[in-house]
Amino acid sequence: MRRQRSAKIVATLGPASSSPAMIAALFAAGVDVFRLNFSHGERDEHRARLSAIRALEKEVDRPIAIMADLQGPKLRLGLFAKGKIAIKPGQNFRLDLAATPGDQKRAPLPHPEIFAVLDPGTEILLDDGRVRLRVETHGKDFAETRVVAGTELSDRKGVNLPGVVLPLSALTAKDRSDLAFALGLGVDWIALSFVQGPDDVAEAKKLVTGRAGVLVKLEKPAAMTRLQEIVDLADAVMVARGDLGVEIPPEDVPPLQKEIVHVCRRAGKPVVVATQMLESMVHAPVPTRAETSDVATAIYEGADAVMLSAETAAGEYPIEAVTMMDRIIRRVQADRFYDAGLHAESGMALEHTSPDAISAAARQVADTVGAAAIVSYTSTGATALRAARERPAVPTLALTARLETARRLALVWGLHCVHTADVHRFGDMIQKATRIALREGFAEKGQRIVITAGIPFGTPGATNVLHIAWV
Fold first, then answer.
1. Residue pLDDT, tens place only, 83-108
2. Reduced to 3 states, what is the DSSP secondary structure of residue 213?
3. Domains present along the chain, CATH in parentheses
4. Most buried among 149, 227, 304, 335, by the most CB within 10 A?
5. Residues taking part in catalysis
6. Are the CB atoms for 180 and 60 separated by under 8 Å?
């Protein structure tokens, strides 16, 4: 099954999309990567969803990627005696470690690590920023604050501290357990939440040990101060705009999105734009025009993938949401201005290596000779990632003998992944490339394709061959 677009679609599974029939329908509508959200659901549910995806994969004979999204630390208030209180700007309000239920003047905050990093003037956001407090005095187990904005608070609302680096690992005990479970199931990507710096990424990669790709969710402003280091360590990145937008002004989110996509594209790392993309379709069969433009902006910027969350996990129109996302992507990529913007910075990040030179040349040669497709032989995925970074005008077939590589690359812009037996001779390489390009519908007899590979065959990262072949 060939997608008629280059950018990919990530969809979250949940109560509205757990049956094998619905998962198959979502894939047919355009989903390339399925996300299992470990902030919700039971393990048996995640296991059943993964089994359904793998069964579908065999049926359609196309690699499908599965992402396990770890919850990360969740900072929340405790309980209130009456479940909810009214507050008003200007009033004093105390946060402390006492387990006593809260009232009109105080609330329990069972996180000593928060009190350890407070300063007078520190801003504390509650309930996704609906309530804003400013610290006036504090100690190791309390903070006296003044309400800056907000009208009410209720049980277990979330807590955010903009610009403050908290002494917390991105991996809680729950996350470590979920990580081991997800890796045991054989997921392809691990999405890491609450990343504040490169040390968080290094810790996760040490635990994953190459069994899956590590996708870093950028949702903390602190991470933006070390963006390049984080991108260098990550296997992929997600612009998690919902959480990011809680701790920074809304008008700062679009420039940061653009910067993250730019840095990832230069580094050749897949980048996903997520959160509230078609949120109105949770309850409506069509999106707003603003949402349509939002998705289109991510595609014009060259993002590898866009993601649906509640739209497919709990929405009333999951298939329609995927279909709409597919339609928007295809329409943008058909725009005559799309390619010009996509290649505005082409070649800026090339390293002085043979693999980078071959990958850049493949795009240019494909344009010059009017090739129907680029065929990239890859073992670890490095060769295919280099090909995708160039954003060629023709599709790229990524051929690999490693099923785990084929699945992982399903997230990457422009790649059509094929799991196939390895080749050992140059002639076999050409024959297989032309045969698969013809079979998969990417080339017709008499057309040319551009082939990139590494010799000796199967050597990771050794891209050193560029060949033009007739189909």
1. 999 999 999 999 999 999 999 999 99
2. strand
3. 8-72+169-340 (3.20.20.60), 84-160 (2.40.33.10), 354-470 (3.40.1380.20)
4. 304
5. 35, 76, 217, 275
6. no
